[in-house]
């Protein structure tokens, strides 16, 4: 079976992997000239289904918990299973109670336990929630490694793919182009993120700082790099980060640890998350065209489950077609 | 019927559209409350000058009246510019005017508010001013051209409920014919019922519904409480008494009245 996957973000690459593992002959085309620049490239890389339940449907937990093992199996060594720590400033601890009411899979911990988990945060927060089962990965390293793995499996990549060139005939065409796709009801939710280099800060796991106005998460990456994210703005504008958003993100990071005040701003990035009205992703099929879209803020978390659903759909169609031809 | 700037409404709940888990849940909450007016903040939908087209068309598809909001403006100039942008984007003269004076408490800057209200009223806007419960500021806002008032009952998003019932009563007493909408500070349906029992005309809220465990159910609960509060006000509630008064006849005893 020949398959064409459009889009080299997390949705496209996970689908290409599932197709190639089932023996399909896969080509991935991407209009950008490199992996960088997609919404996935600006992602946090948190595999945190239990935390996400705070503002998402139960499906995000049931589908998302598969993601930890999927990434671990496909890219060994990338997934860091050290959990998530959720804290709130002293005067906003009611936010912690609200978060706890909305979620499961955590232990309520005090000052001493916080200091053991994250020595740099010792004495800064009296209470926290620890989601031990959660994990994170570096989305950029993961995308690059996944592409390399796919190339090793015989998947072809064409970057800078213009609309002019007509692709050769394929059995299956999959649209994984996110916000660039024209899908009724799809909207953009703009997200802004910062990449900070803070040599004085060490964190072992993603930390979420709850705040009634500016909730923020800080995800540690290698070499004292930290991803601080992310705004949620109902807009598909892809323009540079606004001053207001940067102040909010930096203010929250500074509240988490004052040493972030001395950090270098390595990057201020923007991504537009594709989302449907219920903020849940969809897989759909029409003849030999399949579409995965609407991953919203759950790209790395839900793409594996969506890729599997899409592949089930594709192979059941192939079976139907083969069956029909046989008769 | 509630009448605001010449338009009539059966619902006395004005609902904000921010902070919901998803737009679909927001839309369901609006339907559950049989809501007829929603507030939309311009600033957040306008990053880079573009509007969130899909979000906006979802709001339009609700078939309710839109009250654009100058949320987060800190100066008269900023509020006036945002108001003019809002009029263009949402094609309405209605405007919820917010001029924030204190970043931490989100307390209105009442001086800037009165000035912006005058500028915008003269420019043809129908202004819904978000103000404190201060009586003199309320008078100035009416002089500036506002034909209704939206006092807070506690700081925005604080969920504390009515903090100064006497001030709210006093506003109601001074302005018997001006629509009064409690905007900000409501946390629970009982808070909404309480201000409606005082004779307030409507309640505007957002966080209390959007951040509830089940926003759709909470929107319905607020709608009921607001209706109950309104009916109680019209029915004329008892005033508190210092002494116990038996509600059943005391047989066989001399009755003093």
**Secondary structure category of chain B:** alpha/beta
Order of helices and strands of chain B: EEEHEHEHEHEHEHEHEHH
Spatial strand arrangement across the major sheet of chain A: 5-6-4-11-12-13-10-15
For the largest beta-sheet of chain B, the strand count, sense and barrel status come to: 5 strands, parallel
Task: Please provide the count of β strands of chain A.
Answer: 17
Quaternary structure state of the chains depicted: heterodimer
Radius of gyration of chain A from CA coordinates? 20 Å
General form of chain B: globular
Mean residue pLDDT of chain A: 92
* SSE topology string of chain A: EHEEHHEHEHEEHEEEEEEEHEEEH
Shape of chain A: elongated
Beta-strand fraction estimate of chain A: 25-35%
Task: Estimate the helix proportion of chain B, in percent.
Answer: 25-40%
Most extensive interface between two protein chains, with residue counts? A-B, 27 and 22 residues
Number of helices of chain B: 9
Q: Spans of chain B with pLDDT under 50 lasting ≥5 residues?
A: none
Strand order of the largest sheet of chain B: 5-4-3-10-9
Helix content of chain A: 25-40%
Total strands of chain B: 10
N-to-C CA distance of chain A: 20 Å
Q: Specify the biggest β-sheet of chain A.
A: 8 strands, mixed
Describe this structure in words.
The complex is a heterodimer of chains A (327) and B (257). Chain A has 8 helices and 17 strands. Chain A has helices at 10-21, 49-52, 59-74, 93-102, 111-117, 139-152, 243-256, 299-326; strands spanning 2-6, 25-30, 46-47, 84-87, 107-110, 127-131, 135-136, 156-159, 172-175, 187-197, 207-209, 216-221, 225-229, 233-234, 264-275, 282-286, 289-293. Chain A has an 8-stranded mixed β-sheet, with helices on both faces. A 6-stranded mixed β-sheet of chain A has the order 8-2-1-9-17-16, with helices on one face. In chain A, a hairpin with a 3-residue loop joins strand 12 (216-221) and strand 13 (225-229). Chain B has 257 residues and is of the alpha/beta class. Chain B is built from 9 helices and 10 strands. Chain B has helices spanning 23-32, 53-61, 76-90, 110-122, 135-143, 165-174, 189-197, 207-210, 215-235, and strands at 2-4, 7-9, 13-16, 37-41, 65-69, 94-97, 126-131, 150-151, 181-183, 202-205. A 5-stranded parallel β-sheet of chain B has the order 5-4-3-10-9. The termini of chain B are far apart. The mean pLDDT of chain B is 89. Chains A and B meet through helix 4, strand 10 and strand 14 of A and helix 1 and helix 2 of B.
């Amino acid at each position: 079976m020949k398959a064409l996957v459009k889009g080299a973000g997390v949705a496209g690459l996970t689908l290409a992997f599932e197709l190639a593992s089932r023996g399909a002959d896969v080509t991935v085309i991407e209009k950008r000239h490199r992996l960088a620049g997609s919404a996935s490239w600006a992602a946090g890389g948190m595999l945190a289904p239990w935390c996400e339940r705070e503002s998402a449907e139960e499906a995000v937990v049931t589908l998302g918990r598969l993601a930890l093992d999927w990434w671990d199996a496909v890219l060994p060594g990338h997934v860091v299973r050290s959990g998530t720590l959720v804290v709130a400033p002293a005067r906003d601890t009611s936010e912690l109670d609200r978060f706890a009411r909305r979620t499961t899979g955590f232990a309520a911990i005090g000052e001493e336990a916080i200091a053991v988990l994250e020595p740099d945060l010792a004495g800064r927060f009296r209470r926290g929630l620890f989601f031990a089962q959660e994990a994170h990965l570096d989305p950029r390293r993961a995308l690059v490694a996944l592409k390399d793995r796919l190339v090793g499996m015989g998947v072809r990549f064409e970057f800078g793919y213009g609309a002019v060139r007509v692709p050769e005939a394929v059995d299956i065409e999959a649209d994984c182009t996110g916000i660039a796709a024209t899908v009724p009801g799809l909207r953009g939710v703009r997200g802004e993120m910062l990449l900070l280099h803070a040599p004085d800060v060490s964190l072992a796991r993603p930390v979420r700082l709850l705040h009634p106005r500016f909730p923020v998460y800080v995800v540690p990456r290698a070499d004292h790099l930290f991803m601080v994210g992310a705004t949620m703005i109902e807009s598909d504008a892809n323009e540079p980060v606004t001053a207001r958003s940067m102040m909010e993100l930096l203010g929250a990071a500074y509240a988490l640890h004052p040493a972030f005040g001395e950090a270098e701003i390595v990057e201020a990035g923007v991504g537009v998350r594709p989302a449907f009205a219920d903020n849940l992703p969809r897989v759909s099929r029409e003849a030999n065209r399949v579409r995965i879209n609407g991953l919203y803020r759950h790209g790395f978390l839900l793409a594996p489950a969506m890729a599997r659903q899409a592949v089930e759909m594709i192979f059941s169609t192939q079976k139907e077609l083969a069956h029909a031809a046989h008769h | 019927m509630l009448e605001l700037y010449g338009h009539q409404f059966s619902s006395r709940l004005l609902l904000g559209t921010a902070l919901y888990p998803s737009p679909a849940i927001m839309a369901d909450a609006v339907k559950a409350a049989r809501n007829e007016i929603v507030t939309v903040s311009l600033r957040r939908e306008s990053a880079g000058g573009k509007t969130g087209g899909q979000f906006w068309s979802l709001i339009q598809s609700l078939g309710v009246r839109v009250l654009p909001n100058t949320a987060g403006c800190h100066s008269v100039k900023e509020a006036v510019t945002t108001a003019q942008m809002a009029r263009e984007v949402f094609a309405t003269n209605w405007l919820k005017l917010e001029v924030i004076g204190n970043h931490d408490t989100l307390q209105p800057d009442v001086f800037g508010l009165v000035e912006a209200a005058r500028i915008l009223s003269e420019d043809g806007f129908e202004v819904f001013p978000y103000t404190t419960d201060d009586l003199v500021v309320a008078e100035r806002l009416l002089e500036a051209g506002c034909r209704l008032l939206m006092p807070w009952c506690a700081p925005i998003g604080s969920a504390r409920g009515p903090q100064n019932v006497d001030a709210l009563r006093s506003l109601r007493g001074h302005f018997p014919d001006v629509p009064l909408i409690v905007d900000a500070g409501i946390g629970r349906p009982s808070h909404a019922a309480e201000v409606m029992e005082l004779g307030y005309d409507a309640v505007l809220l957002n966080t209390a519904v959007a951040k509830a465990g089940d926003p759709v159910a909470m929107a319905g609960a607020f709608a009921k409480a607001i209706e109950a509060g309104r009916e109680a006000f019209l029915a004329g509630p008892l005033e508190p008494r210092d002494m116990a008064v038996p509600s059943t006849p005391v047989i066989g005893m001399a009755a003093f009245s």
